[in-house]
């Protein structure tokens, strides 16, 4: 028995070492991919980046793009990383801000789908669906508050500009001493650009941006799988330990777990079965959900470190917009007793309706993630 145990330990540690090495490789691929998206977009659009995204210049249209893209890809980390790359290529920060807000809403569809696994038992499904949609309603309320403030006063634009201001010097829009990723990503990006230079006109830039987007998707998917294999057991332990120890502890734990598993969808989906089977209460996991919103911002911040050149500061700025939005929404909504209760009440009402008829689930998903975005996009055009 002793020899078997001693043999198993090195095998497991060896597997973990390989996983950590693969994780480091995927992080490099992510940073490389973001740089490719920025370079490709800049190559394809030139000085016409603003014109190219004119259809998204209306904040509501930008919001809907973020919702639909994230609902389809099932990863806000992927969408925000792509947005960072687009900003690096010339997409204006003010156009990108509503897209980042939309990514927050779009990512909530994952745990809503997870709750469908409890559909056979009426009470279980009611609890699971309530747990899943409390995240939805919190993010919907956050956007309902902050999007009008952004449209009226440029709130997040101003806050993020203030945050990046210390990194600007001599009036130059470049980051002082932070260009540590450029030397290791530039050779491969330049090599890929040379390979695509045979394509006519701006098609080389389009191809480079598409390759970057595909690599972002692949790298974040692989990072999520690797982090889950390394951390999900510990994440569950942290989740259990966090419950019942106060909202601040819950928020901080949710943030840390999401940073560890690199996916807010994974963090929130961990809670759905526990609430569905009545191990935990919705009110107890609510702060943990808010921490997941904050923790998922780490991916965009990492992605921003890959950006070089004059737009590097803007790439960092949009990543900080994502972080500032989620922290401010948590402080305002959870910190105000009246607002704090609204997501819980709305989720409970929808959970009761879903338990009575599964059509309520279909209507909710279709309305929030398909019908309303499509209608708003049509009207704003």
Features:
381 residues; 81% helix
| Average pLDDT metric | 80
How would you sum up the global shape? globular
Overall tally of domains: 1
Q: Strand pairing plus helix content: what structural class?
A: mainly alpha
Please describe what this structure looks like.
The protein is mainly α. The chain has one domain. It is 81% helix and 0% strand. The chain is built from 17 helices and no strands. The longest helix has 44 residues. It is globular and about 60 Å long. It starts with a helix and ends with a helix.
What are the SSEs and their pairings?
Elements: H1 2-45, H2 49-52, H3 59-73, H4 76-88, H5 93-106, H6 109-115, H7 122-153, H8 155-164, H9 182-196, H10 203-242, H11 247-261, H12 264-276, H13 282-295, H14 297-304, H15 312-335, H16 337-356, H17 359-380
Helix pairs in contact: 1-4, 1-9, 1-10, 3-5, 3-17, 4-5, 4-10, 4-14, 4-15, 5-7, 5-15, 6-7, 6-12, 7-12, 7-13, 7-15, 7-16, 8-15, 10-11, 10-12, 11-13, 12-13, 13-15, 14-15, 15-16
Outline of this structure?
The chain is an all-alpha fold. It is built from 17 helices and no strands.
């Amino acid at each position: 028995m002793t020899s078997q145990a001693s043999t198993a330990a090195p095998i497991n540690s060896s597997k973990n070492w390989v996983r950590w090495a693969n994780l480091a490789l995927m992080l490099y691929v992510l940073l490389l991919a973001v740089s490719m998206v920025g370079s490709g977009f800049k190559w394809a659009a030139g000085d016409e980046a603003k014109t190219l995204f004119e259809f998204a210049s209306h904040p509501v249209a930008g919001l809907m793009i973020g919702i639909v893209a994230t609902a389809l890809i099932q990863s806000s980390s992927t969408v925000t990383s792509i947005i960072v790359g687009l900003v690096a290529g010339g997409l204006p920060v003010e156009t990108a801000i509503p897209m980042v807000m939309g990514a927050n809403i779009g990512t909530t569809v994952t745990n809503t789908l997870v709750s469908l696994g409890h559909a056979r038992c009426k009470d279980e499904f009611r609890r699971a669906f309530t747990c899943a949609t409390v995240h939805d309603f919190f993010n919907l309320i956050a956007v309902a508050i902050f999007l009008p403030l952004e449209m009226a006063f440029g709130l997040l634009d101003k806050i993020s500009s203030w945050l990046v201001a210390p990194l600007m010097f001599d009036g130059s829009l470049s980051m002082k001493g932070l260009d540590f990723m450029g030397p290791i990503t530039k050779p491969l990006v330049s090599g890929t650009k040379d390979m695509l230079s045979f394509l006519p006109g701006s098609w080389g830039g389009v191809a480079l941006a598409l390759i970057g987007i595909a690599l972002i998707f692949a790298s974040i998917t692989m990072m999520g799988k690797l982090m889950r294999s390394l951390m999900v057991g510990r994440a569950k332990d942290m989740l259990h330990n966090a419950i019942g120890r106060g909202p601040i502890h819950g928020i901080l734990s949710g943030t840390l777990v999401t940073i560890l598993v690199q996916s807010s969808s994974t963090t929130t989906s961990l809670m759905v079965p526990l609430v569905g089977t009545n191990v935990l209460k919705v009110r107890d996991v609510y702060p943990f959900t808010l921490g997941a919103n904050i923790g998922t911002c780490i991916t965009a911040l990492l992605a921003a470190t890959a950006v070089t050149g004059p737009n590097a500061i803007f790439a960092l700025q949009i990543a900080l917009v994502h972080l500032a939005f989620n922290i401010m929404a948590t402080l305002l909504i959870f910190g105000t007793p009246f607002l704090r209760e609204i997501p819980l009440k709305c989720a409970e009402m929808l959970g009761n309706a879903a338990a009575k008829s599964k059509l309520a689930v279909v209507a909710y998903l279709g309305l929030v993630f398909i019908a309303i975005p499509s209608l708003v996009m049509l009207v704003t055009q």
